């Protein structure tokens, strides 16, 4: 009896706490908003009423039209990195149309097509910020599951509207379809390291590990830079398409030791986009002397780093995270000029849970994009 009273009291307290939390999401800001959120690690999203801040003097308010589903959303929905604050409204590959601007906004006007990636704030003062590297600012505010300066949690693009400081918004080029929203994360996350690490020189030979959302963009950018590209994949089924459709020059099955050995010492650089723990020794073996292995995938556990192949070939292992706002604008402009768009499967909002299930199985070519503008219905 006592046990059941304690149990019921605990249950009541939990549900009261839950309703206070949900209420605060709905009421913490003045503008009513609606989106889809994950509430626990199950991987299931459901509708959520929440709120957005008023459009401040340097803010742009916009209607979300399309939002990509990045594997980072999946890591966060399932709390694979251990940092998720539920309920989480994911989404950081966002294209929208401006509906309101603050009185000190000078870059945008109502009706403009715009893009927002994974950053909606930074300190604006540090060395990184002053060098257009807001993506490395210790005070950066991520678009979803981040923390605003007022302590409230950021909510991403699986939602009807957003309010973002104009500095973190890019102009969406006229000739890019809005469905190409994955450029805003998958695109810049691969464009940026190819540029920064000097892996963009015509004639170089670049490897791309993992042919998913990021990987297929790495192939497209590396080809546009004039390099030769080898895809390194666990999925032999992706070979024909990698070569015939995406334009890769060759394909290696990473789980075939003979193929990997035969290609040893052939690559100037590698962009590794794999989302799970995997061995990197065979990848280091693929590099020439002075070759560079750049990690952009974010497995939830550390990878083993063998040192001898680094010493003996003066090889480098580096990393890279998204891109600064200026570089995101440069990248979308480059994509427009070179006719580079992601291969996407556009799906309605209600399909999000199925899309998440399929992404877990790498069953997408190569990015799901939610058609928020036409299909997000308030229930
Ligand atoms: P994705 O579409 O799921 O692609 C990941 C690819 O990795 C898969 O298609 C698969 O390619 C390969 N893969 C999956 N499991 C594997 C395993 N166990 N062993 C070997 N290969 C495996 O994911 P994404 O959206 O491209 O994101 C990839 C990673 O980058 C995620 O961890 C994401 O969080 C991270 N990310 C980082 C940044 C950054 O700023 N650095 C930005 C965005 C995303 P194959 O079938 O070809 O083997």
Automatic annotation (TrEMBL):
Record domain Enoyl reductase (ER): where: 43-370
Domain of life: Eukaryota
CDD domains: CAD1
Cofactor(s) this protein requires: Zn(2+)
SMART domains attached to this UniProt entry: PKS_ER
Keyword Metal-binding set for record: yes
Family to which the UniProt record says this protein belongs: Belongs to the zinc-containing alcohol dehydrogenase family.
Entry-linked PANTHER family: ALDEHYDE REDUCTASE
Alphabetical GO biological process terms: lignin biosynthetic process
Family matches, as Pfam families: ADH_N (PF08240), ADH_zinc_N (PF00107)
Entry GO MF terms: metal ion binding; oxidoreductase activity
Gene3D superfamilies associated with the record: Medium-chain alcohol dehydrogenases, catalytic domain, NAD(P)-binding Rossmann-like Domain
UniProt-recorded name of the protein: Enoyl reductase (ER) domain-containing protein
Keywords of this entry: Metal-binding, Oxidoreductase, Zinc
Chain ranges passing through the membrane: none
């Amino acid at each position: 009896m006592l046990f059941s009273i304690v149990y019921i009291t605990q249950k009541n307290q939990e549900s009261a706490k839950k309703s206070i939390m949900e209420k605060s999401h709905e009421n913490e800001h003045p503008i009513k908003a609606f989106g889809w959120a994950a509430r626990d690690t199950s991987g299931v999203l459901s509708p959520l009423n929440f709120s957005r801040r008023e459009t401040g003097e340097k803010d742009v308010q916009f209607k979300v039209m399309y939002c990509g589903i990045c594997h980072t959303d999946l890591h966060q929905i399932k709390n694979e990195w251990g940092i998720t604050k539920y309920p989480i409204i994911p989404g950081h590959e966002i294209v929208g149309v401006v509906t309101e601007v603050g009185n000190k906004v000078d870059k945008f006007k109502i009706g403009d097509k715009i893009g927002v990636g994974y950053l909606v704030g930074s300190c604006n003062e540090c060395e990184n910020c002053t060098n257009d590297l807001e993506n490395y600012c210790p005070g950066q505010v991520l678009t979803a599951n981040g923390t605003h300066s007022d302590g409230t949690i950021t909510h991403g693009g699986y939602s009807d509207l957003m309010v973002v400081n104009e500095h973190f918004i890019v102009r969406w080029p006229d000739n890019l379809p809005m469905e190409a929203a994955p450029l805003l994360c998958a695109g810049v996350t691969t464009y940026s390291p190819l540029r920064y690490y000097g892996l963009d020189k015509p004639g170089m030979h670049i490897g791309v590990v993992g042919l998913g959302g990021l990987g297929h963009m790495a192939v497209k950018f590396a080809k546009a830079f004039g390099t030769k590209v080898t895809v390194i994949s666990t999925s032999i089924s992706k070979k024909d398409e990698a070569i015939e459709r995406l334009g890769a020059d060759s394909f290696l099955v990473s789980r075939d030791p003979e193929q990997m050995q035969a290609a040893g010492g052939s690559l100037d650089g590698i962009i590794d986009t794999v989302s799970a723990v995997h061995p990197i020794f065979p990848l280091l073996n693929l590099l020439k002397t002075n070759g560079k292995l750049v990690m952009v995938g974010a497995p939830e556990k550390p990878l083993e780093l063998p040192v001898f192949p680094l010493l003996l070939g003066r090889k480098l292992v580096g990393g890279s995270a998204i891109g600064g706002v200026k570089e995101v604008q440069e990248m979308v402009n480059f994509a427009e000029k070179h006719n580079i768009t992601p291969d996407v499967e556009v799906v309605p909002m209600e399909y999000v849970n199925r899309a998440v299930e399929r992404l877990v199985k790498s069953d997408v070519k190569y990015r799901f994009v939610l058609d928020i503008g036409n299909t997000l219905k308030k229930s």
